[in-house]
Design brief:
With 155 residues, the protein is of the alpha+beta class. Helices cover 48% and strands 14% of the residues.
Length: 155
């Protein structure tokens, strides 16, 4: 799977962290919550007075999911991808910048870059030399982590 690296000024890093963790499908302000009891068909046998309310709420949920599915950027969910955000100083790069390593399929990466540019003024694709350095550092760290797990579990 391909990887890309983007750089962003540290002034925007805090906002970027929140942005990367956000998943609209878990956002209760976007998708109305439904009680777990409603999943049980027998619940409405005991509480028929709630059936109409449940129908309205489920229609709202269906409409919210439809809107999300039609928004090309709503489905660019970084939290569901392999990514790492590092300060430049920890990588031997510009200490005034942070570097976002993102590993995903090409279609996701294309939309991710568009979404990042729409939401952050200072974000841009890192130069190839910096990108290679970040990818190497991340992959080396992952490799060491995997080797450590192998040692722990006798691999």
């Amino acid at each position: 799977m391909p990887a890309r690296v983007f750089e962003i000024d540290n002034t925007e890093t805090k906002s970027l962290k929140k942005f990367l963790e956000y998943d609209p499908y878990l956002d209760k302000s976007k998708i109305p919550e439904t009680p777990k009891d409603w999943d049980d068909p027998k619940f409405f046998e005991k509480h028929p007075e709630l059936k109409d309310e449940a129908g309205r709420r489920m229609a709202q949920v269906k409409e919210a999911l439809k809107k999300l599915s039609e928004d090309k950027y709503a489905n660019v969910i970084f939290a569901r991808q392999s990514y790492s955000l590092r300060e430049g100083s920890t990588l031997g790069l510009d200490g005034k910048k942070s570097y976002l390593y993102l590993k995903a399929n090409d279609d996701f990466l294309k939309l991710a870059e568009e979404k990042l540019r729409l939401n952050f003024k200072t974000v841009k694709r890192s130069p190839q030399s910096d990108e290679a350095k970040v990818i190497s550092a991340i992959e080396e760290e992952e490799s060491k982590g995997n080797a450590g797990m192998g040692t722990i579990f006798g691999g």
